[in-house]
């Protein structure tokens, strides 16, 4: 059960929810959030500072989409794959899906009075971190299953949508879907305008993602790939239902990402974008494409506007990937230097 | 291992390769095969005879794509899912993928001299059906694994492409990708022209399908879904490779079809088309869509131009599905009456 243990390791990061002390300043809520659509149309990467990274992206896209270019790529092969956590939106102080887990436990608690005296639930309800840590991976796994499995898929989708519409980030105090990166929204739109088919390939849950990411990024659900639970179809009452079972089916991280890309897309990408060592295999896979390709790492360098972390971070660790990117000349985007703004609506 | 046993049951159909006596007349090879592209543009369902079935399809598409209609369906929700074997191409005297298995064993035999004296290979090489039957499901499963696993995905893809370019159907004497149904090519194009996103949801292998179906049907690889083998990513020699492992991962048949649709597409279809009881759950799933939906069964009624079979057939059995279609008023296409031609190039 290698996959399960890998994901369990990930859920251990829940601990950060309780202990992290974000280095960012607390921001006030912005009244209006715009995605600067008009600016995007005129200047496709308007939120990117001029420099070699922005230029390298534009040069690549122009080269491979210009008919007659030696590096021209037919439309069918213009596949771009993006990681989500830390690449398209923030992931601190813990993966947002894990913050969803905690919120759900608290929301579900009134219907489960026994949780007040039952671990690992009691620890969550009490915000008692030392106790939750004692429950270990087994406890965290139980929280994940309790909040993600045992219900029909449409019920789960509505739960995520409702959470996304109401929940706010603990320190940024914004809805989570406003903590996406404006420069990346522009990059996605720029690639779509150049007839790239853009996919998300996330370690996050595929149905957690699809509940909000389609609207947020303008990427259709069938182009959003993630980790999966085993599911079951039943039609016993003349009411066809797909139920989420409490069993992880596939962990879409590390070696899982190229495997998922092959399964869901069936083509090697020509563009791959990530931010952590968990994306390294996806970038290696794209780099092995005989067509001209582009590998991009997002480096979290902005402790003021976002968060700064890399080699030693327990979330989004960027260590082996950094070395390989430097060695191979992949783009490393410096969020502090390369991006004019981080989030939509920022000035 | 319910999935494995289900697929094993399917492989047992290999036996039909040896025993079937097709009721069709042997046809001569047509020198030119056209897909009647021009005719399609002028008359979207040109190879369909006028009648209530053709009209019902046209009425449905017009109704749900006309702005202002009470049944209007937004583009994002225009999802159509098609079975492949028996729905988009023929499946007699055995699933074509199983004929590929037999051809591959024979092609691989020179490199495996021991197969001459080793079952189940000897039985295949000797065309010795009684002996192969003795080997049972275990033997057939071994043949499937030998021909489909243990190689990198790109090697497997090339093998299928080469086979498709050279192999011919044992009685029709045509390449297999010319045994697709001209009226269905027109239906796919008609739906695409009306902004439906068309997916194949096949019990056949996903990579077997993608090697030829993209070109044949004009459907991108990422919209072709099928049964999967477990796969593994490795990058030990600096050469990223995805290898097909000898383990079935998912059987995309019966209850598996709605599960795969939810996983790969993330939306309930509004159109579902199949030909057998293996497609029933997919049609039930589409029929439960609150949006106006269309369920279509292809009934193999033409013993002269194609094959005639239904309730008692060991391939493409159409029994429970027929009853439910009749009860619920789903369309049942009578290939003999509803289709002017069967294959591209037919007159």
Automatic annotation (TrEMBL), chains A, B:
Q: Give any Pfam family that matches.
A: HAD
Pathway, according to UniProt? Amino-acid biosynthesis; L-serine biosynthesis; L-serine from 3-phospho-D-glycerate: step 3/3
Q: List the SUPFAM superfamilies hit by this protein, alphabetically.
A: HAD-like
What GO terms are given for molecular function? hydrolase activity
What EC number(s) is this enzyme filed under?
Answer: 3.1.3.3
**What does the record give as the reaction this protein catalyses?**
O-phospho-D-serine + H2O = D-serine + phosphate; O-phospho-L-serine + H2O = L-serine + phosphate
Name of this chain's protein: phosphoserine phosphatase
- Name the species this protein comes from: Flavobacterium suzhouense
């Amino acid at each position: 059960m290698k996959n399960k243990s890998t994901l369990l390791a990930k859920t251990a990061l829940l601990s950060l929810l309780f202990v992290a002390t974000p280095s960012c300043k607390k921001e006030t809520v912005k009244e209006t959030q715009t995605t600067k659509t008009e600016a995007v149309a005129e200047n496709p990467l308007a939120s990117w500072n001029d420099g070699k990274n922005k230029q390298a992206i534009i040069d690549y896209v122009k080269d491979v989409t210009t008919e007659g270019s030696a590096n021209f790529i037919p439309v069918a092969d213009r596949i771009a794959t993006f990681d989500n956590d830390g690449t398209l939106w923030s992931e601190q102080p813990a993966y947002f899906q894990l913050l969803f887990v905690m919120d759900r436990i608290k929301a579900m608690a009134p219907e489960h009075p026994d949780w007040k005296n039952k671990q690992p639930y009691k620890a969550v309800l009490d915000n008692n971190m030392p106790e939750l840590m004692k429950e270990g991976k087994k406890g965290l796994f139980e929280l994940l299953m309790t909040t993600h499995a045992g219900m029909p898929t449409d019920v789960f989708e509505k739960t995520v949508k409702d959470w996304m519409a109401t929940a706010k980030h603990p320190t940024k105090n914004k809805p989570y879907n406003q903590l996406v990166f404006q420069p990346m929204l522009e990059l996605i739109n720029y690639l779509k305008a150049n007839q790239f088919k853009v996919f998300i390939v996330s370690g996050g849950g595929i149905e957690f993602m699809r509940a909000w990411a389609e609207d947020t990024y303008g990427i259709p659900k069938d182009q959003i790939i993630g980790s999966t639970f085993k599911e079951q179809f039943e039609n016993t009452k003349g009411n066809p239902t797909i139920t989420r079972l409490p069993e992880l089916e596939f962990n879409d991280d590390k070696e899982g990402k190229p495997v998922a890309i092959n399964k869901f897309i069936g083509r090697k990408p020509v563009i791959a974008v990530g931010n952590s060592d968990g994306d390294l295999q996806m970038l290696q896979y794209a780099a092995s494409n005989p067509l001209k390709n582009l590998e991009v790492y997002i480096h979290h360098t902005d402790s003021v506007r976002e968060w700064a972390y890399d080699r030693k971070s327990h979330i989004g660790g960027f260590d082996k990937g950094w070395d390989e990117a430097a060695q191979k000349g992949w783009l490393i985007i410096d969020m502090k230097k390369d991006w004019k703004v981080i989030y939509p609506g920022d000035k």
